[in-house]
């Protein structure tokens, strides 16, 4: 387990920034709520076995007691480095993203299941969308009762969404909570 | 009658037989600055240029004819000699007996004028008759209702042109021209009734007038100066009155028979050129009245040269002459008005005349000039003029039937150009005018259907024709062609004759108007953005100054009103700029406050929501950024600086009417509104409470705020602790807090606020099935209004009011309040008040008395002390003397 180097940090932050925008500051500066420290420490990112974890400082200090080989996970895993060396956000980061998301999409109840099976969001399934979303922005997908379902990348801006037909793709799928079942062994 | 002009220096009695030399008459008027004798018919051709392309000459020196006699008359007078006495002696020959006669006559005349005035009724001459649609003149009885619209102008000119019955005035005027018969004879001519009135009047004459007359008669010989003065006054008044009568006469004749008397227009125009402002104004106003009545319901097209060459019947020639004269004099009149508009003393009258004309005859020629002037005056600094122009344009916009909507387009284009030229620094009234525009929304929809129908019909027809034609013979075909041709011609004729404007034209005009309006609105918004960006460092206090963006308010209301007509393509840009105006900070540069006031920013948010809601069918868009703005604006809101109604409106449109809310966002708003309703005034607090209630009912998860333990459990998300200073409602962690403010608010001094708060506390255990019944309660704006009116009543009463009352709805409360106030006013015990006042003043008196006594005491004690010192010193001196004496001894 080690802190991220500069290159890795920029990669991770860039990905997060796509979803959270200026709220990234809140993720980085989030004060920890557990631990004996006063003033409270921060949450920070750690790299462990090609995965990036998001955990409080006190937790990480305690985790150093465990040997590197035997440590499976610490805090929240938010993403992993692929074999080719690029960074991917995984489903586990969903809670973090949903709390700080800038662009959101709400799905109609009929379209939820399709999305949870790994399909993209179509215009027909769109119940609501945040204003001035641009194509390429990170978007968090919610159900109508405000439960985060997953996230993806907007395929069209809000303006274009108005005009397109019902079968056009609005959000490209990246991760959804269905993966907890579908890819249980990989996570 | 009461005003006269100092211009009339030389009053000249009309005593023609005894004049030793002729020509004083014309000379006198020349000196007065009037070109030509008044009684004579004025040759209009020299005053109004027949060619409608030029301005009418203001003064025409050729018209002033100075006769040989005039010159001689002047020669006989040296400058030092010019006074009334010499002139009188010159004109009348003898001195005293003639003067006596003159004065008797003057007095007489004056009395008769007063009589005329008193004989007067409230009608003015242009009301007395009105041409009915067939063109004939119908005399209205005096008792008939007077058209208010026509009456107004005379009063405002400062000397309401009151006039007696018309026929009598005309005859009396002519009679006065001669004036030579003795008084008794005249009296015989006049009817009995008149005599009665006169006697009545003579009785009622003010005493000073009588004494003045008596004075004149007794001291006639030796008080020349006084005589001259009075005479001057009298004749000035007389001239004024005569001109007024003349105006009335000419106007009447025009109204009676416009076709034959059309030349009189030039006479009226001539009167407008006078130097006496009052007369000129009267002339202008009477011309307006005349034009309003005689202008036909169509545009006049002057015949071309070719047409002029053709031989026509007498009637047509007459009509042509009538129309061309009307048109040329109308043009001359308008040119005069436009010229006078620059003159400050005539400005108001000129603009008013033009407004009346534009309102009455917007279809007639030269309306473009009228519209241009009226639009220009929309920005006038004079409130009266501006309001007048606004009203005119508004009525122009609402009554489009009068001019088929073309003038609307012209006016809108002119206004948008004006805004462009002045760089958006204009009076807000200009844009308020737009709000009265109406758009027919069915126009756009009707078109494609019609087209489809037409094309279907056409196809069918064609098909039928073809099927018909194929077997037909040549003759039949020819007949058929002829038929179709005539039918087409007939249709074209019908179309040109029909008064309903073509749908296509109307649609084109509408879209042009719309584009002009939205162009103006967008220009203003862009301007505001530019200026706010150029001054990013202004803090809020300095930006409260009024008039920084004068047009933004009406612009935003206009956008809200016409938002359903905005094209979807503009929507993105519009929302973007609105967002910037509402104070949305750029994504990176932190918080930059722009120079708009809080109310204006709130208005921006409201407009954005309206625009979105009106286009809801396209897509349901969540305006997150505007929510963030509102969330932050709540912090900046100050109860007495900013407008509470705007805040209530914003709460209503954004939170109360919105259907879906994030749990986090709703909780954040609930918490913040509750916190700030503690510091708002009570109307705002009530509006906030109504909103809170609504949000709590809608979002069942937010009801956790009403629980007693902080933390929020799993709902609170990542933010575990409530942060009251967060700028994003999502990150405030409001779910982790407790709504303790409600229990404080339930002890609010205002009964309705406290009852609202306590009712909310009791909804704690409410189950969802009950919520529907509660949702139909009052909206925030209504609650706000109710409470403001109630507060005003409160203030008016200024009495203590039992604060423990619990009243269910605001409406009821207001009603009861008014009654209670009255009761309390009457109930207050006078005796108690009296006693208290007595006590108070007694105390004050005692204070005074005490002070006085103290002063006296001080003075006396000081005197005693001084006396003691004096005695001591005296003693010492005496002792010293005695010592000296002893030593000497």
UniProtKB/TrEMBL annotation, chain A:
Question: Which compartments does it reside in?
Answer: Nucleus, Nucleolus
Coiled-coil ranges from the UniProt annotation: none
Q: Which GO terms describe its molecular function?
A: RNA binding
Alphabetical UniProt keywords: Nucleus, Ribosome biogenesis, RNA-binding
Q: Quaternary structure per UniProt? A: Interacts with pre-ribosome complex.
Family, similarity comment:
Belongs to the NIP7 family.
Q: What is this protein called?
A: 60S ribosome subunit biogenesis protein NIP7 homolog
**Biological source species:** Platanthera zijinensis
For this protein's source organism, the top of the classification is: Eukaryota, Viridiplantae, Streptophyta, Embryophyta, Tracheophyta
TrEMBL record, chain B:
Q: Which family does it belong to?
A: Belongs to the CBF/MAK21 family.
User: At the top level of its lineage, which domain of life is listed?
Assistant: Eukaryota
Q: Which InterPro entries match?
A: ARM-like, ARM-type_fold, CCAAT-binding_factor, Noc3_N, Nucleolar_cplx-assoc_3
This protein is called Nucleolar complex protein 3 homolog
Q: Which GO terms describe its cellular component?
A: nucleolus
Residue ranges of the region described as Disordered: 448-481
> Where is this protein found?
Nucleus, Nucleolus
Pfam families reported in the protein's UniProt record: CBF, NOC3p
What SUPFAM superfamilies would the database entry show?
A: ARM repeat
Principal place of residence:
nucleus
């Amino acid at each position: 387990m080690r802190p991220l180097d500069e290159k890795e940090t920029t990669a991770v932050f860039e990905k997060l920034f796509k979803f959270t925008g200026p709220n990234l500051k809140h993720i980085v500066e989030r004060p920890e709520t557990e631990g004996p420290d006063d003033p409270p420490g921060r949450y920070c990112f750690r790299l462990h076995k090609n995965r990036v974890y998001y955990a409080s400082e006190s937790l990480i200090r305690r985790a150093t007691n465990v040997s590197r080989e035997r440590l499976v996970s610490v805090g929240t895993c938010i993403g992993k480095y692929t074999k080719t060396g690029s960074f991917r956000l995984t489903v586990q980061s969903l809670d973090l993203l949903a709390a700080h998301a800038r662009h959101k999409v709400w799905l109609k109840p009929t379209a939820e299941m399709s999305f949870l099976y790994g399909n993209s969001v179509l215009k027909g399934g769109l119940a609501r969308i945040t204003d001035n979303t641009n194509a390429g922005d990170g978007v968090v997908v919610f159900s109508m009762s405000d439960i985060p379902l997953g996230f993806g990348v907007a395929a069209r801006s809000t303006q274009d969404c108005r005009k397109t037909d019902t079968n056009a793709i609005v959000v490209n799928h990246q991760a959804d909570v269905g993966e907890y079942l579908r890819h249980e062994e990989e996570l | 009658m009461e005003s006269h002009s100092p211009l009339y220096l030389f009053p000249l009695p009309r005593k023609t037989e005894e004049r030793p030399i002729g020509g004083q008459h014309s000379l006198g008027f020349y000196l007065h600055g009037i070109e030509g004798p008044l009684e004579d018919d004025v040759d209009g051709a020299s005053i109004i240029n027949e060619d409608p392309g030029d301005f009418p000459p203001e003064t025409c020196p050729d018209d002033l004819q100075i006769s040989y006699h005039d010159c001689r008359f002047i020669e006989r007078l040296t400058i030092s000699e010019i006074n009334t006495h010499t002139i009188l002696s010159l004109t009348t020959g003898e001195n005293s007996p003639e003067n006596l006669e003159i004065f008797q006559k003057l007095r007489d005349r004056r009395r008769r004028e007063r009589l005329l005035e008193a004989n007067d009724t409230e009608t003015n001459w242009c009301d007395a008759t009105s041409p009915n649609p067939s063109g004939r003149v119908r005399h209205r009885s005096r008792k008939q209702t007077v058209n208010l619209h026509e009456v107004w102008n005379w009063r405002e000119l400062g000397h309401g042109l009151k006039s007696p019955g018309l026929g009598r005035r005309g005859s009396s005027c002519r009679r006065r021209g001669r004036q030579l018969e003795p008084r008794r004879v005249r009296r015989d001519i006049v009817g009995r009734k008149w005599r009665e009135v006169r006697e009545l009047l003579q009785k009622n004459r003010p005493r000073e007038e009588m004494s003045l007359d008596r004075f004149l008669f007794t001291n006639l010989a030796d008080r020349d100066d006084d005589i001259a003065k009075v005479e001057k006054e009298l004749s000035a008044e007389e001239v004024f009155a005569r001109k007024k009568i003349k105006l009335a006469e000419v106007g009447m004749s025009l109204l009676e028979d416009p076709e034959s008397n059309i030349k009189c227009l030039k006479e009226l125009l001539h009167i407008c050129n006078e130097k006496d402002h009052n007369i000129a104004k009267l002339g202008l106003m009477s011309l307006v009245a005349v034009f309003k009545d005689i202008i036909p319901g169509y545009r006049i097209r002057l015949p071309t040269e070719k047409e002029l060459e053709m031989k026509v019947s007498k009637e047509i020639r007459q009509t042509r002459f009538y129309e061309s004269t009307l048109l040329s004099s109308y043009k001359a009149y308008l040119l005069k008005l436009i010229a006078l508009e620059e003159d400050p003393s005539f400005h108001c009258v000129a603009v008013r005349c033009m407004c009346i004309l534009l309102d009455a005859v917007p279809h007639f020629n030269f309306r473009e000039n009228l519209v241009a002037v009226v639009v220009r005056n929309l920005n006038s600094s004079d409130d009266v003029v501006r309001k007048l122009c606004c009203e005119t344009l508004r009525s122009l916009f609402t009554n489009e039937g009068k001019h088929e909507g073309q003038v609307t387009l012209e006016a809108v284009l002119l206004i948008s150009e004006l805004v462009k030229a002045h760089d958006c620094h204009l009076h807000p009234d200009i844009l308020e005018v737009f709000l009265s525009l109406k758009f027919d929304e069915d126009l756009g929809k009707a078109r494609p259907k019609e087209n489809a129908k037409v094309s279907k019909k056409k196809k069918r027809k064609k098909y039928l024709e073809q099927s018909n034609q194929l077997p037909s013979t040549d003759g039949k075909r020819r007949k058929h062609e002829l038929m179709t041709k005539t039918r087409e011609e007939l249709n074209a004729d019908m179309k040109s004759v029909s008064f309903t404007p073509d749908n296509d034209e109307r649609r084109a005009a509408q879209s042009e108007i719309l584009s002009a309006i939205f162009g103006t609105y967008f220009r203003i918004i862009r301007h505001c953005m530019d200026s706010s960006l150029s001054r990013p460092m202004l803090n809020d206090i300095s930006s409260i100054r009024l008039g920084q963006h004068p047009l933004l308010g009406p612009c935003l209301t206009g956008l809200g009103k016409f938002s359903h007509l905005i094209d979807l393509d503009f929507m993105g840009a519009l929302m973007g700029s609105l967002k910037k105006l509402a104070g949305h900070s750029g994504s990176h540069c932190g918080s930059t406050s722009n120079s708009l006031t809080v109310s204006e920013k709130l208005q921006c948010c409201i407009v954005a929501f309206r625009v979105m809601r009106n286009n809801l069918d396209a897509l349901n868009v969540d305006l997150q950024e505007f929510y963030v703005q509102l969330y932050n604006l709540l912090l900046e809101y100050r109860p007495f600086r900013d407008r509470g109604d705007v805040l209530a409106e914003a709460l209503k449109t954004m939170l109360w009417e919105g259907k879906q809310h994030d749990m986090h966002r709703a909780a954040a708003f609930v918490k913040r509104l509750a916190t700030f309703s503690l510091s708002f005034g009570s109307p705002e607090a009530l509006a906030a409470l109504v909103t809170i209630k609504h949000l709590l009912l809608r979002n069942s998860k937010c009801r956790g705020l009403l629980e007693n333990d902080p933390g929020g459990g799993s709902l609170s998300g990542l933010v575990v602790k409530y942060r009251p200073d967060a700028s994003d409602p999502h990150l405030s962690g409001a779910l982790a807090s407790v709504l303790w403010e409600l229990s404080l608010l339930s002890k609010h001094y205002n009964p309705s606020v406290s009852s609202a708060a306590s009712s909310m506390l009791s909804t704690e255990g409410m189950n969802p099935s009950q919520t529907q019944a509660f949702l139909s309660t009052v909206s925030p704006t209504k609650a706000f209004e109710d409470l403001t009116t109630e507060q005003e009543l409160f203030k008016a009463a200024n009495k203590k009011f039992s604060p423990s009352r619990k009243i269910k709805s605001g409406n009821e409360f207001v009603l009861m309040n008014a009654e209670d106030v009255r009761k309390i006013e009457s109930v207050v015990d006078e005796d108690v008040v009296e006693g208290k006042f007595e006590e108070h003043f007694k105390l004050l008196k005692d204070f005074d008395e005490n002070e006085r006594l103290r002063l006296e005491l001080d003075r006396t004690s000081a005197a005693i002390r001084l006396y003691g010192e004096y005695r001591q010193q005296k003693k010492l001196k005496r002792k010293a003397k005695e010592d000296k004496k002893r030593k000497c001894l």
